[in-house]
Each structure stands twice: as structure tokens, then as C-alpha cells.
Amino acid sequence: MQQPFRIAPSILSADFARLGQEVDDVLASGADMVHFDVMDNHYVPNLSFGAPICEALRRYGVTADIDVHLMVSPVDDLIRAFLDAGATHITFHPEATLHIDRSLQLILDGGATAGLALNPATPLSTLDHVLDKLSMLLVMTVNPGFGGQSFIPAMFDKLRMARAMIDAGGFDIRLEVDGGINPDNIGEIFDAGADTFVSGSSIFSKRSDQDPNRYDSIIKAFRQPLLQRSR
Ligand SMILES: O=C(CO)[C@H](O)[C@H](O)COP(=O)(O)O
Ligand SMILES: [Fe+2]
């Protein structure tokens, strides 16, 4: 059975100088998987990290799902690189490839699960004809490129529409939200239909160097509103 909700910390906001320990700590504190934001200073105006860091986390011993969010154009070469690097799931933006179906198939043929990410102004109709290939639909709740932005309220309606579309078609697709998610808004976002929650700055800014389980209280704060609702 699918988990009713999953929390995916974005390592974009982690301390890169001790990334392996950061990932260990956030998973030990109850996070469900690792969200991996790849930015190329072309599709988005920022630069982050690539497949060698994913491969290094696997070599370090991370066994949790690695949820790769590609904000790059073109996508196919990096899809291949992340398949080789041990990605569990790969999501890309439909504007970033000329051949959406072919890029999705490349992911599936490589043994990972596939997702599409829709920017705030990209319509749900972009997904027509490829829904059967998706395990995840990522609704961007900020414009991509940076952590620490505010959730765009117009995305509530989009999430309700996305949930209705997934349920009406009987698809086994998780509905992920990314950008500006925090313990104060996560309950309402769940109510709108999301089941997978990415958060970077609101989690990693809460580290405490004194506490050995330093993300326990913030992960608990994210989970609490969801536990109340999914009982
Ligand atoms: O894809 C992203 C940005 O393009 C990040 O995953 C997202 O912004 C998470 O960061 P925060 O929780 O700080 O908003
Ligand atoms: Fe992301």
C-alpha cells in the first residue's frame, strides 16, 4: 500500500560541506526520501549540483529513495547520468525537452520511475497523453530556481484540479508539491490533494548543532498536521 503522505527534504538547503551526515540526520529524524534539485543556469537562473553528488551519496551508503528534480534543458543526457548514479525517481519539466514521451520512456527503460514538473503557469493539459507513464506529478508551488520562496496561493486550485484528474482517471500517480511548504501551510495543501511534500529551507534552517537528532522536531512539525488528517 502507498504511504498516505511522504516528506522529502530538499538538500538544496543542506550544509554541502557535510552532505552525507545531513542526509543521514534528516532521514533518521523521519524524512521519507531525499529531494535532489538539479539546476543548470540555463533552464533556471541558478546552478546547483549534478549526478556525481548523487553517486557519492549512494557510495556513502544512502539507501533511501532519491527523488531527482531536473531543472535543466535539454534533459536526456542528464537523465542517463542520473540513472547511472542511482536515482530512484526522475522528474523533469516538459518545456525542457522537445520530446516529452521519449524522455519519459528513457527514464522508465533505465529502471527508475518518472515524473513531470509543472511550473505555476504551466497547464495540467500538458500531461494529456502521457499520464500512464507517470508515477509522480510535481506541481511547482513557486517558480523554479531558488529555495526560500513563498508558496503561491493560486496553486491551491491547481492542486484540486490535479487531484481530480488523477482520481478520475484511476491513475497511481503521487501528487508532489515543491516550494514554500512549511508546518503552517502543509495541512491545507494536503487538503487540496497533495500527498508528497518537498521542503528545503524550512527544514534545513532548523538544524541545531547541539542536538544529535537535530531534525526530529521540525520533521515532527511537518508530520503532525498530516497525521491528524489521515487518521
Ligand atoms: O525545486 C526547488 C526550487 O526550484 C526546491 O525543491 C524548492 O524551492 C524547495 O525549497 P523551499 O522549501 O526552500 O522552497
Ligand atoms: Fe525541487
From TrEMBL:
A GO molecular-function annotation: D-ribulose-phosphate 3-epimerase activity
Cofactor note: Binds 1 divalent metal cation per subunit.
Record's catalysed reaction(s): D-ribulose 5-phosphate = D-xylulose 5-phosphate
Top EC category: isomerase
SUPFAM superfamilies registered for this protein in UniProt: Ribulose-phoshate binding barrel
Active site: 37 (proton acceptor), 178 (proton donor)
Pathway(s) of this molecule: Carbohydrate degradation
The keyword Isomerase is assigned to this record: yes
Binding-site positions, substrate: 10, 69, 145-148, 178-180, 200-201
Gene3D superfamilies: Aldolase class I
Residues binding a divalent metal cation: 35, 37, 69, 178
Cofactor(s) this protein cannot do without: Mn(2+); Fe(2+); Zn(2+); a divalent metal cation
UniProt cross-references to PANTHER family, sorted A to Z: RIBULOSE-5-PHOSPHATE-3-EPIMERASE
Alphabetical list of NCBIfam families matching this protein: PRK05581.1-4, rpe
HAMAP family from the UniProt entry: RPE
Role summary: Catalyzes the reversible epimerization of D-ribulose 5-phosphate to D-xylulose 5-phosphate.
Protein name: Ribulose-phosphate 3-epimerase
Lineage of the organism: Bacteria, Pseudomonadati, Pseudomonadota, Gammaproteobacteria, Oceanospirillales
